[in-house]
Amino acid sequence: MKTKLIAPSLLSADFGNLERDIEMLNRSQADWLHVDVMDGRFVPNISFGFPVMKTIQKFSKKFVDVHLMIVEPEKYVEQFIEMGADLVSVHYEASIHLHRTIDLIQKRGAKAGVVLNPATPVLMLEDIIAEVDLVLLMSVNPGFGGQKFIENTYKKIAETKDLILSNNSTALIQVDGGVNLENAAKLFDAGADVLVAGNAVFSSEDPERTIELLKI
User: What is the pTM of this model?
Assistant: First the structure.
């Protein structure tokens, strides 16, 4: 996979016009389509599940990146893959048997990612980093869009990059939360490979142009 990727988050899309917004992303320079799944238990919010995934599967022409903010993600990863997920990321904090879940995702033909909440140290990934395809660093506390970016994320990107290199891992680094036109270039310069942007894209007067600018 190439780096410097933009993954607009459908959490900020207009769900009354989901087909329209997905078609806009298809036309745009967006690389991935980011899908935030929340269960109201692991995070204090509920987003959407399989009915919306059916719509995404039907209309999206992009790489579908599913972020599971749910307890017991191992129960659902196979169904998300069956419904078009190209990459499934699960939280370190929610996965009791993380190696088994990562292996299950990959054996079902998808890429596998592991997610860290802002307060979870990067060193917790030392025993899994060589196995995963992606590390998603949350730069806000998960559960709601539109939150302020946590500045310590830059330090965590550097730590993650060091861990990847020291373990001969090929994992990409993704950042999610508070990404906008003001910090995107700095995040890429710090070592991020994929940026998730929700409000910055969908609240823009020209979302396609915003996606283009995020990549510069």
Answer: 0.96
Instruction: Just list the catalytic residues.
Output: 36, 176
Q: Decide if 187 contacts 156 (C-beta within 8 A).
A: no
pLDDT of 3 over the 80 cut: no
Dihedral, CA atoms, 159, 163, 164, 167, nearest 10 degrees? 170
Return the bridge partners of 66, or none. Answer: 35, 88
Residue 145 pLDDT > 90, yes or no?
A: no
Residue 18's CATH number: 3.20.20.70
pLDDT reading at 2 higher than 60: no
Given a contact cutoff of 8 angstroms between Cβ atoms, the answer to whether 24 and 53 are in contact is: no
Q: Which domain holds residue 27?
A: 5-214
The answer to whether 145 is annotated as binding is yes
Question: Rounded to 5 degrees, what angle do the CA atoms 146, 101, 120 make?
Answer: 45
pLDDT digits (tens, 9 = 90+) for 179-200: 999 999 999 999 999 999 999 9
Rounded Cα distance between 85 and 40, Å, is: 21
Does the annotation place 34 within a ligand binding site? yes
Any known ligand binding at 40?
no
Q: How many domains does the chain have?
A: 1
Whether the pLDDT of residue 44 is over 60: the answer is: yes
CA dihedral 4, 161, 118, 13 (to 10 degrees): 10
